[in-house]
Structures are given as C-alpha cells and as structure tokens.
Design goal:
Strand order of the largest sheet: 3-2-1-11
Largest sheet: 4 strands, mixed
Number of helices: 8
Shape: globular
CATH topology: TIM Barrel
Radius of gyration: 16 Å
Length: about 240
C-alpha cells in the first residue's frame, strides 16, 4: 500500500519555527491533511518528540523519532531512529557537542519544550541551531551506533546542504536516501546526478503549520510500521514517489 509522509517538520523547540508548531497542532494538521507518516526533526534536539508520539498514536499516525543535526561542516543531516530512547541518548551527545551560546529570543525566537497538552515545560536557553563539533563522518557512525539512519537534508539548497558545502556526497557514508526541497524540479535533479543512485524523498521542512505537506508524497510499504519505513529508506532498489 502507498502511505503519505512528511518527515521533516520543526516544532516550537526550533527557534526558527512558529510558536504555533506545538505537538498537538502538528499532529492534528497532519491528520487533517491525511498524512500517514510524520517526523518532528528539530535542530539538534528531540525533546518534543515524546509528547508528539503519544498524540500521533491516538490519531493513527506513525511518528518516526527524528532530529536535524547541524554538523561541524554546517551541513544539515536528518537522523531517524527506531525508538525515542535511543534517539534521546544520541540527542544528549549532540546537545553537549554544540557551543554554550545563549539563545537571543528577540532575534532568533523562542525554543519551547512542550508536554502532551502543549503546556510549556521549559524554555531552552542554549541556542540549538549552532553547529555540532561532530563531523558528518562522526554523525554517520554515531547514528548507526544508536540503530538509526541518516538522510542528507534539502540537498538542492544553496546553504546548509551537503552538496552546497562539500560539492559531493562522500561514498563512505551509509546513505541510501537523500531529501530534496519542494522547490526542486527534474532539471535540478538531473544536474545533481542523484537519480538512480539514491532514493529521493521530498519533505516540507515546515516551520509553520500551513507549510506541512499535503498527502502528495508516498512510499509503498507492506504495512504501516517503523521497520517497514526503515527498510524502504535503506533499500536503493526502491524509489519513493
């Protein structure tokens, strides 16, 4: 069966995201838009994922534990995990690896950790968008250690993408899937020379509720479960449509 997805959504924990991007609002918008699979991928943290997972479960939506890591090279890498516990352990390492710079809320925006009722647990004071001290190679190895998978984010963009920073995708990295933005067209895909080499997925990178994707991107799975999603993302023989 085909299942709709949007696996790159920022919550109010990301300073660049709207305060309306609460766990309940995100899940309910995904439900309205008939999405089957979502992932909340905040910058360098998974704190709001636990609250969202419980809400998603009630709505019959599969939530993949995730995070968008900003590597030492200033490359954004999506990291997905099989369970929240392993993701949170990885998240602690990433949190400790970013510089202790205080978030300037008036300039960057608030970083809100929320519970299942969307009540504020605390405001994160450390700026989460900073670059980690871990390189792409190190992130690749760490994510594998925690049974996760990495997907280079928005590789077609001119900033914070693996192609704009490095100019290529290193062959030593365990990468089967890459993400392109919704603005990427067939001509751009051809120029990047990724077609037929990697699975290609399109996510929203939503920072506001209205930006969350409609049910227009699908992956074909035998059933709706996390293992199937991981199997699909790892299989270079399949292509996401």
């Amino acid at each position: 069966m085909k299942y709709s997805f949007d696996m790159h959504i920022h919550s109010s924990l990301s300073p660049c995201a709207s305060d309306d991007m609460t766990p309940n609002n995100i899940v309910n918008m995904a439900y309205i838009k008939k999405l089957n699979i979502i992932s909340i991928t905040d910058h360098n943290s998974m704190i709001n994922v636990s609250s969202a997972e419980k809400i998603a479960y009630k709505r019959g939506i599969l939530l993949i534990p995730g995070m968008e890591v900003n590597t030492k090279e200033e490359v954004h890498i999506l990291c997905y995990f099989r369970n929240i516990e392993e993701g949170l352990e990885f998240g602690k390492l990433i949190y400790d690896s970013i510089p202790d710079i205080k978030n300037a809320e008036k300039f960057f925006g608030q970083q809100l950790a929320l519970d299942e009722e969307d009540s504020v647990i605390y405001r994160e004071e450390k700026l989460l968008t900073s670059a980690s001290s871990y390189s792409i190679d190190e992130i690749d190895k760490l994510v594998k250690k925690y049974n996760g998978i990495i997907v280079p984010a928005h590789i077609d963009r001119k900033s914070y993408s693996i192609l704009s920073v490095l100019g290529f995708i290193p062959k030593n990295l365990d990468i089967s899937t890459v993400e392109i933005s919704s603005e990427c067209n067939e001509e751009m895909i051809e120029k990047m020379n990724i077609k037929g080499i990697y699975n290609i997925i399109t996510n929203s990178d939503a920072h506001d509720l209205w930006q969350i994707n409609e049910a227009e991107n699908f992956m074909e799975l035998s059933s709706l479960n996390l293992n199937e999603v991981f199997r699909y993302l790892r299989n270079k023989e399949k292509r996401i449509k």
